[in-house]
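Deviations from the work plan: none for this task. Representative record:
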Amino acid sequence: MKILKIPKQNLDLFMAVLPAFGEVYAPVQRGKGFAFDRPTRWSDVQMSYPRTILPLKKFLLPPREVTFAFNPREGYRDQLEEAGKPVVLFGVHAYDIFGLNILDRVFSQGKYVDPYYVTRRRNTAIIGVDFEPDDKHFAYSMNADFVDSGFDLFLSDIGEDYLVLVGTSRGDDMVLMSGCLLSEPGEADFAEYKRRSGLRRSAYRIKLELGELPEILEMEYHSKVWEEMGDRCLSCGSCSAVCPTCYCFDINDELELAPATGNRIRSWDSCLFKTHALVAGGENFRSSRASRIKFRYYHKQRGFVAEYGRPSCVGCGRCVTTCPAKIDIVTVIETIRGERNESSSSVTAKA
Amino acid sequence: MSETKTVLIIDDDPDYVTAIEALLQSSGYQVRSACNGREGLHLARTIRPDLILLDVMMTERTEGFFMLQEARRIPELSQTPVIVISSIYTDQPNFRVSPEAGWLPASLFLPKPVDPARLLAEVRRLTEAAADPIGHSAAGRRES
């Protein structure tokens, strides 16, 4: 992997040439939070932010998209051309890239490859940046605080400069296009990189033990914790919406007045919604809130381990900051593991 | 000219704006001006000029670049000819990225200080070539 460096003061010039690779989105302030959006000037770009409100899946798996249109004259007309518009995502944290790498396994591999996701992923350039963990991050515990793939460039703060890891040939093209803005790093730069990496790892305030968690979940299938969480959960689906790796979607046909004419729509769904497991005939396999929130935990922390060898959680902390009922995944797991006393308050976020 | 063409100058140097304004008005152009990218973008959406003369280093040193990208996303400005006029290449010697490399959606790049006769000729060419406003027919006309 090629490693370069760029002075922080030249990042604005570097970003100016990125539109050659697609429409540029970066973390910008939105209210009290942050969101990936188009910056209208360099000072809009926030290089230091805790987390964005929504993860990157909004670009790869949009909240609502027309997958194809249909009418009797033309038959089916897919919307892949729209999905193929190039995009550059600038300033992405490692856990979000890790989240995309997990989605890649779901949508890009195996028997059923999703052409919309794959087309967008192929046309999305990603420039990562490191971050200082806050009191809700636990990416280190989830082994998602560092990525070695899934990005084109990755910037690491080493003081006056960013160390730049070049991950792909497209990233290399970005470097070449930017002329003399990047240069070769030296031994002192590498030493500073290692020093700061160690500091970032030790800055995580949440240390979550994941060993034997799938087995412990198996043992705790009938734990009263799930009923307690069900009592608290509002089934709003916020945790799913903000999760980088929740990918449930629903498919509906929107018909026009003309016969056999309309659009097939894919939109985000959530396993917390009451209708998620409702099937024809009126049977609902997860009609209670407790069964739905339990399903979510089991899918992410147990089912995913069996299928892909690791949990699908990346430790971004979005669900913790977003849940209106203050259900906290960290305290839930600690309670299930027996590291906390079980009580009605045990699954809520720490103050 | 069959009708009066409007040129929008976006530049934070009032002396430069005054000089170019006088040059263009004496040649029959109507001229409006703005002193930064955001004001310029707002004015451009309002008056829909026939041509924009755009500085780069204003409130921020890449402001013109960002403003131009934003303008191209606005349907009524997506095809408006733009001449970027800047001293960024002399001011930032490490920025050796040719404006011809495909990242700058402008009709033409001219370095400051600009030759008035050359500028006037390019303004005339671009305002009269409305059928090809991005200036693709004049490929290779960008200068650094």
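The first helix of chain A runs from residue 11 to 17.
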